[in-house]
Amino acid sequence: MISVNSKLPQAGTTIFTVMSALANEVGAINLSQGFPDYDTSPELIELVNQAMKSGFNQYAPMAGYMPLREELSRKTEKLYGAYYNPDTEITITAGGTQALYTAIATVINPNDEVIIFEPAFDCYAPAIKVAGGIVKALELEPPDYRIRWDMVKRLVNSRTKMIILNSPHNPTATILHQEDIDALTAIVKNRDIFILSDEVYEHLIYDGEAHHSMAQYPELRERSFVIASFGKPFHATGWKVGYCMAPAVLMSEFRKIHQFLVFAVNAPMQAGIAEYLKNESHYLELPGFFQQKRDYFRKGLESTRFELLPCAGSYFQSVKYERITDEKDADFAMRLVKDFGVAVIPVSAFYGRGTDHHVLRFCFAKRQETLDNAVERLIKV
After folding, report:
1. What is the CATH number of the domain that holds 344?
2. CB 93 within 8 A of CB 99
3. Residues 6+ apart with CB under 8 A from 236
4. Is the overall model pTM greater than 0.90, yes or no?
């Protein structure tokens, strides 16, 4: 047998795959992986169907269906006061994960350092390593998981090439505030540091808070890849359609990588989404839709022994469980799915060193019946 010199020797199957498979195996309620258990909009499905019947079944342009890019440009300018040229500064991707990987591959070379904040979405570090980069992880702690910018300053040096941000944040449900933007701006000023901003949950933000996109700050926009997706807001995670926005000089290089990864993305879905975006209520009403689910689930959890952590955005609710057990979070998560029939994600899986703060993550993007059944089981824990 020819041996393989693995580029990711420590990587195994993701915790999301493991927990969802186990949930299916034992018939548990799956609050682990981040996907809804209700259907996407019938209107959106019909628009995609119409696109298929109208002949949008061949390759889309490499950069994406132009009417969709035009709608995204209009939407971004209205929401954040930032104009992105749909021809040269917006690219449609095969989901947010592909966009993230492509942006990292575009600018990271061997021995470049990339600062990430843990707990972090699990695709960041592997993509950095495959590119030959060096991960510099700054660990955040519950309950607020706020970034300590004084520590970020200590990590920055001449080899720092990129800072990756995620707001609203998965898994902690925290968001960036103006003071974070100010601190970040000061750190990157006069430095050749790119920003990769994972904003896939941009519309899932609660309690009247504002989303601080890198797009709306000129000093940050000029160095940023802004990543978003349609899967989370439109309840269609299986469609895997996302996008990247960046200044033309960065996007030109991004597309050089993109064209050899996927070349083009699902054509009829792009056409359907382009039409769907014309009705602004389809995304402007999302905060209210998901806040109702968040509030309902949190109220239910108040009847359990879990300790609720803040949830300002995303569709995840984290909890501490120290009043229940001192087990490791991975062990407790396994016991929850096997003994109580509820699948969750142990947050230590989002730390490179497996740091365990005894925190679990629930997904509340579920039908009310699903949340009721889950709470009923969790009350028994």
Report:
1. 3.90.1150.10
2. yes
3. 40, 44, 230
4. yes
323-329 CB contacts, 8 Å cutoff, 24+ apart: 324/381, 326/358, 328/356, 329/356, 329/357, 329/358, 329/359, 329/360
The two structure tokens encoding residue 154: 């200590």
Q: What pLDDT sits at residue 81?
A: 97
Q: Which residues contact 130 (CB under 8 A, 6 or more apart)?
A: 7, 8, 105
Domain tally for the chain?
2
Give the span between the Cα atoms of 332 and 257, in whole angstroms. 41
Same domain, 205 and 277: yes
Spatial contact of 61 and 88, defined as CB atoms under 8 Å apart:
no
Distance, in Å, from the CA atom of 128 to the CA atom of 125, rounded to the nearest integer, reads 5
- Residues facing residue 313 across a β-bridge: 205
Residues 34 and 56 reside in one and the same domain:
no
Do 76 and 220 lie in one domain? The reply is yes
Distance of alpha carbon 330 from alpha carbon 326, whole angstroms: 11
The verdict on 335 and 247 lying in the same domain is no
171 prior amide bond cis, ω within 30: yes
pLDDT tens digit string along 247-306?
Answer: 999 999 999 999 999 999 999 999 999 999 999 999 999 999 999 999 999 999 999 999
Residues 253 and 363 in one domain: no
